[in-house]
Design brief:
The complex is a heterodimer of chains A (about 400) and B (about 575). Chain A is of the alpha/beta class and about 400 residues long. Helices cover about 40% and strands about 15% of the residues of chain A. Chain A folds into 3 domains: about 1-130 and about 225-290, 3-Layer(aba) Sandwich (D-Maltodextrin-Binding Protein, domain 2), CATH 3.40.190.10; about 135-225, Periplasmic binding protein-like II (D-Maltodextrin-Binding Protein, domain 2, 3-Layer(aba) Sandwich); about 310-395, Cytochrome c-like domain (Cytochrome Bc1 Complex, Chain D, domain 2). In chain A, the strands form 4 sheets. In chain A, strands 1, 4, 5, 6, 7, 10, 11 and 13 form an 8-stranded mixed sheet that branches. Chain A has a two-stranded antiparallel sheet with strand order 2-3. In chain A, strands 8-9 form a two-stranded parallel sheet. The longest helix of chain A has 16 residues, at about 240-255. Chain B has a domain at about 185-315: Thrombin, subunit H, CATH 2.40.10.480. In chain B, the strands form 10 sheets. In chain B, strands 1-32-33-34-35 form a 5-stranded mixed sheet, with no helix packed on it. In chain B, strands 2-38-37-36 form a 4-stranded antiparallel sheet, with no helix packed on it. Classes of the chains: A alpha/beta (about 400), B mainly beta (about 575). The interface of A and B includes residues 327 and 342 of A.
Chain lengths: ~400, ~575
């Protein structure tokens, strides 16, 4: 299922119509087979839907079985069940989920806890994450720079229609487009590129299994490229989800998942220091937050609910901060949004901004480039952005 | 084999069609020679230069449309151009073909008699360009020379297109846009050299003026507006402030062939905080006279010493000859942001006269041409000053027009006041370098104001409910003066009385130049409407509600002719 997501997750964010269309066909044939925990226990096994040929995620030859399969086996074992396999083709995208809805299997591996994804897959729920999936920077070890931003002008390899394709374009990067991960690897081989932003697991696996690759994976990546990944389960089966959640928590604590991860070179994706995030600071990938689904695009920065204490800690609202924020506003924002946030009418008036501090943070960081709002993450630090937000939020209303 | 032959045949047919359609235009393209440019006033049908002639007088010798019949003026056609950016362009017209830059999206060639598009060149900009442009994706236009069209892009490239088919001939990257260097001006072209300056005075650039060979794009000369170590005036920039000193020369220059001088106004010194650059800051807020062949500074005149108000001297330096007290004046005039119309002797840069043309409360310009500022009107660090005009100026970059026979200047003006103060700032690449705050005291107004250069007095003033910030004026030999407003109105006034004779509301606000040209024996008036640019971005409280509430974006080419 990861394949579905890695290749088409840009669509989850942008093309709701298409995904809804794909789902409606699934809906027609869906059966309401209820498989509560008791049924699984009576049966003695839990069935996993996984791709037959998609290492490092899964492989029907079981040599090796793949990261997702081994985690599923450990989870099943923790639940006192046997894991059996139902092989599917994830290239079929949302159609592959029918296997789950139709009861061919009980869980699907490697689905993003992403709100836009769940909004569309309304019969689906996703458990706590067992790792941070997404996109990592793959760089030639002997390249002149090991920092992604240095390649803004010279070009970064991406797979077409993936999240990095869209995000890097928005931020003014030159991109070199490829159709598949294999094409990206060939481009490294032919020295067409020094750096690429590609699906993290494939990148980690490629480097892990070939010591001669001359490439390395940077665990630090952009916040927009990190997606916490869990197991997909049927939404009605809340007790199954709870049991899997408990198993994941235990397996994270006792180091089982970490060990499996090492076997497949799965990188511990974390937010790069320079593009730091506000509230939910980078956590180790194997302890990805169980709290809230990551939201798409701008909102990915922040959990949905913030305590007053968290807000005060992230955005200290004192005079000094406001003044510093005002000065930074003059440097970065004033030329479009106007003096003291008073718009002249052609650009959004910030005093009418409806989002919270965290949403504003995400927007400033990644911009709305198609509307002329720059992505500021290369020019302003997270701390500077926070100060600007404190200042803007302090402006008197119209 | 058969398929191959079939394909070959198709290709041949296509090639034949292509070669028949292109020459149709190439026959019409008349080379824009130096001689035609020098004698622009003798070719009434054309509008070959940005300011119509080398002196940028914006005066059309056409006289079919007059004060008597202008009421019959009506649209010949209106064409949506497909852009939501501000349209600050002054189109140029050569022998019935209009060359039109649609912001930084397209350069179009349009047959003026019919509105038919002959070719279109699509421009591309880097995705992150908006961060480095102070005032939106604006351009003043493209320029012509020989068989080529020249255009400066927002990301600081200069391109040359084949005027016959719009194909790229050469392209040069001139500066790093990520350091804030952008090009918004229509290039100045003299004797086979295409010259440009850069915008970016708000990003801590240093003003540069370049001349490139029109055929090859190779650099011929380069002059820095800010003095370099060893140059006179370098010591007028305290605290090592020349490095990010601004003084951007961001509007099209004028040219005096008799002296072979080009005239370039320079912008504000950077940052706006004057305390960070103690001294006069020679080279900034000045008029520079550069030798057209070498770029050498022949003379310069500084209007504002140690500018504290963002009062650029970028304004077009219009050349005009007239008599004052019975003596001939070889004048170069600039309607300055500080609200005074300056006349200098263009042969030596000596001050002749100045007169206030807008609401000015900060002081006056004395008989030596120096500003005398009243107490409390100079902002500083921790010192607030409320004054008129604002940093938008008593005149913005909307160009004035003159009538060379009557020696009258018609100035689009602004009445808008500001409260300003300064503060410490530090240079940060990719962000603005200001060190100042300035809030408008209320909604601005405007006027088209006529000044008689011979007497150095205001003759009349036609009021408008919004500032005439960016719509450039046009005079004609029909006794008319035209100007576009932010409301979107194109207005025709009587040159002698200032009386409004005609008014047409175009689909969007006008921030570009009105022109006149002839084709097939008929006189046309044209303007591109399309609201945007600096005013709505920077003016905040200065933007009148009726503009905020009823003017929408959207570029349209409006061409007018006399009706029955």
């Amino acid at each position: 299922m990861t394949r579905l997501w890695t290749t088409s997750s840009a669509f989850f964010a942008y093309v709701f119509v298409l995904t809804a269309l794909a789902l409606s066909s699934g809906y027609a044939s869906a059966q309401s087979t209820i498989m509560p925990m008791q049924v699984l226990k009576d049966r003695g096994n839990i069935r996993l839907c996984a791709d037959a040929e998609f290492l490092p995620h899964s492989d029907s030859k079981m040599n090796p079985p793949g990261f997702d399969v081994e985690v599923a086996q450990a989870v099943a074992k923790h639940m006192g069940l046997d894991a059996t396999m139902h092989w599917v083709v994830t290239m079929k995208g949302f159609r592959a989920l029918r296997n789950l809805y139709d009861g061919e299997c009980d869980f699907f591996m490697g689905l993003p806890r992403d709100e836009s994804f769940l909004d569309e897959a309304f019969k689906l729920d996703v458990t706590s994450p067992y790792y941070n999936g997404g996109f990592a920077t793959l760089v030639r070890k002997d390249a002149k720079s090991q920092t992604l931003t240095d390649y803004k002008a010279s070009g970064v390899g991406v797979i077409m229609a993936t999240v990095p394709d869209v995000r890097l374009f928005e931020r003014g990067y030159q991109r070199k487009l490829y159709r598949s991960f294999e094409e990206v690897m060939a481009a490294f081989h032919n020295k067409e590129i020094d750096v690429a932003v590609v699906p993290a697991l494939e990148a980690g696996w490629a480097v892990y299994k070939d010591e001669q690759s001359g490439l390395r994976v940077l665990a630090d990546t952009d916040k927009a490229f990190i997606y916490p990944m869990g197991f997909g389960v049927r939404k009605k089966e809340k007790d199954v989800k709870a049991a899997i959640d408990a198993a994941i928590e235990a397996l994270q604590k006792d180091g089982t998942i970490e060990k499996i991860r090492a076997k497949y070179g799965v990188p511990a994706l974390a937010v790069a220091a320079a593009g730091a995030q506000p509230a939910a600071e980078a956590k180790p990938a194997d302890a990805a937050p169980a709290a809230e689904p990551a939201k798409p695009k701008d909102e990915s920065a922040a959990p949905a609910a913030h305590s007053a204490e968290a807000l005060a800690a992230d955005f200290p609202n004192d005079e000094k901060t406001i003044d510093k924020g005002r000065r930074l506003y003059k440097q970065a924002c004033y030329k479009c949004h106007g003096e003291n946030g008073v718009s002249g009418g052609t650009i959004p008036d910030l005093r009418r901004y409806k989002g919270d501090h965290y949403e504003m943070f995400a927007t400033i960081q990644s911009g709305r480039v198609e509307k002329g709002m720059p992505a500021w993450n290369d020019y302003l630090t997270a701390d500077e952005i926070k100060k600007i937000i404190v200042y803007v939020k302090s402006l008197p209303p119209e | 084999m058969t398929t191959k032959r079939l394909l070959l045949g198709t290709a041949l047919i296509a090639a034949t069609f292509a070669s028949t359609s292109v020459p149709a235009l190439s026959l019409d393209w008349k080379d824009v020679t130096e001689d035609r440019l020098l004698n622009a006033d003798k070719n009434p049908d054309d509008w070959l230069l940005y300011g119509r002639n080398y002196g940028a007088q914006r005066h059309s010798p056409l006289s079919q449309i007059t004060t008597k019949n202008v009421a019959k003026l009506k649209p010949a056609y209106q064409i949506a151009l497909g852009s939501l950016d501000g349209q600050e362009v002054t189109p140029v017209v050569n022998n019935g073909i209009m060359i039109l830059a649609v912001s930084h999206q397209y350069i179009d060639a349009v047959e003026v008699a019919t509105g038919k598009r002959l070719w279109r060149y699509e421009l591309t900009l880097p995705a992150d360009i908006d961060q480095f442009a102070c005032c939106g994706r604006v351009t003043k236009g493209a320029s012509l020379y020989g068989d080529k069209v020249f255009f400066g892009t927002l990301d600081a490239r200069l391109i040359a297109l084949n005027a016959k088919d719009g194909k790229l001939v050469w392209e040069k990257k001139l500066e790093d846009y990520k350091s804030g260097y952008t090009i918004t001006m229509a290039p100045t072209i003299v004797k086979g050299k295409v010259m440009v300056g850069f915008a970016g005075g708000e990003f801590g650039i240093t003003g540069q003026i370049l001349a490139l060979d029109t055929e090859t794009g190779n650099e011929v000369w380069k002059t820095s507006t800010v003095p370099q170590p060893g140059e006179p005036g370098y010591d007028t920039w305290g605290l090592d402030s020349t490095k990010y000193g601004g003084a951007a020369s961001w509007l099209t220059a004028t040219y005096d062939p008799a002296q072979n001088l080009t005239f370039w106004g320079t912008g504000n010194p950077a940052p706006w905080n004057a305390a960070m650059r103690p001294g006069d800051n020679v080279g900034s807020t000045s008029l520079l006279a550069l030798d057209a062949d070498t770029g050498k500074k022949v003379w310069q005149f500084q209007h504002v010493q140690n500018d504290a108000w963002d009062w650029d001297s970028m304004n077009e330096a219009v050349t005009i000859d007239f008599e004052k007290d019975g003596k001939p004046v070889k004048g170069v005039i600039q309607a300055h942001k500080n609200g005074f119309l300056y006349t200098l002797d263009r042969t030596n840069g000596k001050f002749v006269q100045a007169v206030a043309f807008a609401n000015v409360d900060w002081g006056t310009v004395n008989a030596q041409g120096k500003m005398e500022v009243l107490p409390g009107k100079r902002p500083g660090v921790g010192v607030k000053a409320t004054l008129c005009p604002s940093f938008f100026g008593g005149k913005g970059w909307a160009h004035l027009a003159v009538d060379p026979k009557s020696a009258m200047a018609f100035i689009p003006t602004m009445d808008m006041c500001v409260t300003m103060d300064h503060e410490e700032t530090s240079y940060k690449k990719g962000t603005m370098y200001l060190g100042a705050s300035g809030e408008m005291t209320g909604p601005g107004k405007g006027a088209l104001t006529a000044v008689d250069l011979k007497t150095n007095k205001v003759a009349w003033s036609w009021p408008n409910p919004s500032p005439l910030q960016a719509g450039s004026a046009l005079t004609t030999d029909g006794g008319l003066v035209f100007v576009g407003t932010l409301e979107g109105n194109l207005v025709a006034l009587d040159q002698t009385s200032g009386k409004e004779l005609w008014n047409y509301r175009t689909p969007s606000g006008i921030v570009g130049g009105t022109i006149s040209f002839g084709s097939g024996g008929k006189q046309y008036i044209a303007v591109v409407s399309g609201y945007g640019g600096a005013f709505p971005l920077w003016a905040g409280k200065g933007v009148p509600d009726h503009i905020k509430n009823s003017v929408n974006k959207g570029a349209v080419l409006n061409v007018f002719e006399l009706g029955e």
